[in-house]
Amino acid sequence: MQTSTTSATRADGPTFEKRSPVTGEPLGRFPITSPAEVDEAVARAREAFATWRETPLEERLRMLGRIKDVVEAHGEEYARRISEDTGKPLVDSLLTELMSIPLFLDHYRKTAAKVLGRKRVGTPILFPGKRSYIERFPVGVIAVIAPWNFPFQLSMIPVLSALIAGNTVVLKPSEVTPLTGEIIAEIFRRIGLPRGVVEVLQGDGTTGAALTAAAVDKIFFTGSVATGRKVMAAAAQRPIPVELELGGKDAMIVLADANLRRAARAAAWGGLVNCGQMCTSVERVLVESAVHDRFVALLDEEVAKMRVGGPDEHAEMGPLTFGKQLETIERHVKGAVEAGARILRGGERVDRPGQFYAPTIVTGVTPEMELYREETFGPVIPVIEVADADEAVRLANDHQYGLNGSVFTGDVERGLAIASRLECGQVMVNDLVASVGNPALPFGGVKNSGFGRYHGDEGLLSFTHERAIMVDRGRLDFEAFWFPYQGKYDAMAQVFHGLVGGNLPKALVGLAKLGRITSRG
Known about the structure:
Number of helices: 17
CATH architecture of the largest domain: 3-Layer(aba) Sandwich
Low-confidence stretches: 1-9
Number of strands: 20
Number of domains: 3
Structural class: alpha/beta
Shape: globular
Largest sheet: 7 strands, mixed
């Protein structure tokens, strides 16, 4: 079968340069897909949709299941290329980028038929002899605009979910991580999807803007709040549905009865994994006063052990993938210190080539600081002292973001109770981040963290429309509520009062009268 993806080796037209976040050395040039080329790709996806939507679900799953074989055969090579692109350690590339894809494919292979299949629902007695159903059908051509922090996982999972649901996809990877975009295009070429089912378009912001303005049927966007608003505005011009997976300022609550060693190690990992470049990173640690100092000391011990370096140095933390993020981090930390916070560790760039910032702990952080209010997206762990659990919950909820949260306590039932009070899309008790990797759980945020859900059943349903169907056997020549109306008022009133008053026999008698009157008409 002929496949179609946009080539990164096009000789003509504008290009952009990719540099290593580890060394600053050039890694290649990539094409900027023009608006006309975007429209051509969307047209190919539209043409392919007519056939792909009719491809049986089992066949779609079988074809996409080949990705597991490709990832198994080439996974370590892909991990090295992703790490070259992003700077993240090889362990992170395997764990957080590649490993999730087989898990999600396995999950949907087991659940997709039930999730997407026609379902019978109840029918009121007002409509005797009828059956009611809900079924799903694909939206059409989906535009997926992906971020740079997890450029493989956060591209592949929405793409695969859309494909399984019967849609075709035009994917625009981030220009910050074009090497990973090439891996994705390569994978779909290897499994032999029909032409146009997945189109991968390299490019910059102009390419993304052109895609949001193109004749797609839905936009799935992962990125910043500012860009998310632009995506919504573009979609509103048609209008078409959008799903926004935006930022976070996740709160980790540490109660006095928690296993503090575990909590400190969790905060270090949750705040520094992927160099803090996760929408689900721990960006606020709310610690009860009774254990604040002890927790901070343990956290400092853990962060002091961190090894920072490139992906080939067996480091726990690499550089920032996007160099401009350094400016945001420095502004946030500087502003916090000027407002009275204290840098316990780190707080500066690492003196070496590349985009490195030292693992940082900041204590004495308060809600008016930019470090507290805005997403830092870097290796900075702000610690906030609170009087008790109620204050921790209040501060966690009194924020513009609502993506993830976590609660550390020795009392699991208490932890669950607190989790249910947090205004965010997902919460973990005595752990963090890992729920994102459970394919059975929906993922998404509230407030400025966006809306919509993917992963879980919702990850398929969000790429479908819902259709209601009601069926009658068609044996009678009439329906009780059809014309004529003459002589029906008393019987209709009997039905009305019977249903409203909870008198079912009375309502059924009224329905029978209506039927007799209609049959005579």
